Amino acid sequence: MRNALVRRTVLTASAVSLTLLVTACGADKKDDTKADAKPSGASSAAAAKGKTDAELTPLLLTQAEAPKDSVVKAPSADALKKLTATTDKAECKPLGQAASMEPQGTSTGVARTQVGGTSGKPVDPNASEADKLKAGLEMLAGASGTSVTLTSYDGKGAEEAFAGFKKAGTACAGGYTMTQDGEALKINKVVAGDAVTAGDESVSFLADFGDAETPMAGQVVMVRKGNTLATFSVQSMSGKPVLPKDVVEAQVKKLG
To answer: Which of 111, 125, 131, 238 stands 20 to 30 A from 207 (CA)?
Structure first.
């Protein structure tokens, strides 16, 4: 019962009432094929200047650009304070940073938003009270939230931050404990997340933090596009969260 209460407390931390959790362990094939690549424009990339907060904000997905029936809303300053996370293992710090929508490494700018949505049929106003309750529970079970964090870097900072995040995923594949808003949450195990092919590099992780009573998991995707990172943290109320590929594709497309 204590574990269930802890999970419910943590799950109320974000503006969409869904914790933005991450963990570790998987990359698409694009990562390996580009590991040793040295493009002719490497010197240009090294000299690239990162974007500021003001330059990144217009690049965030807007309500008009989001999938149908989604709600786009930037997290409040108070919500971000509650999302601040620490980890019991130093090597897992990048995972905690992604969970709390904090920049990886030393960024030149950051911008954040959240996209909430539900699945299931809308409640029929003429339905019986029992049917309304059932439909409402189905909608709640299908509720999902995706946090979107954009960060930019000077030179090769984005590549280095991306590589550091992948390294943390491997180091913490056996699990770790994250403390958020004063509550500790045990990450049991990690596996590769849904495959993603976007940007110049992408990696996806799935973390299990449930128990026999309450199966729960979180999924995170990081995409690098030039010297900008887009991190997507996905949480649902019904076990494994389904990756909202339409949200990822729309956001990455907006990065150019």
So the answer is: 111
pLDDT in tens, 41-88: 444 555 689 999 999 999 999 999 988 778 898 888 888 888 788 999
Predicted model pTM: 0.74
Compute and round to an integer the Cα radius of gyration of the chain: 18
CB atoms within 10 A of CB 82: 19
CA pair distance 85, 100, nearest whole angstrom: 6
Question: CA 142, CA 33: separation in Å to the nearest integer?
Answer: 37
**Helix, strand, coil % over all residues of the chain, rounded to 5:** 30, 25, 40
Contact predicate 50/156, CB 8 Å:
no
Q: Is the separation of the CB atoms in 24 and 207 below 8 Å?
A: yes
Q: How many CB atoms lie within 10 A of CB 186?
A: 15
| Top mean-pLDDT range of 14-18, 120-124, 231-235, 241-245 | 231-235
The tokens describing 118, both together, are: 């539900």
- Alpha-carbon distances of 193 from 20, 24, 176, rounded to whole Å: 15, 9, 18
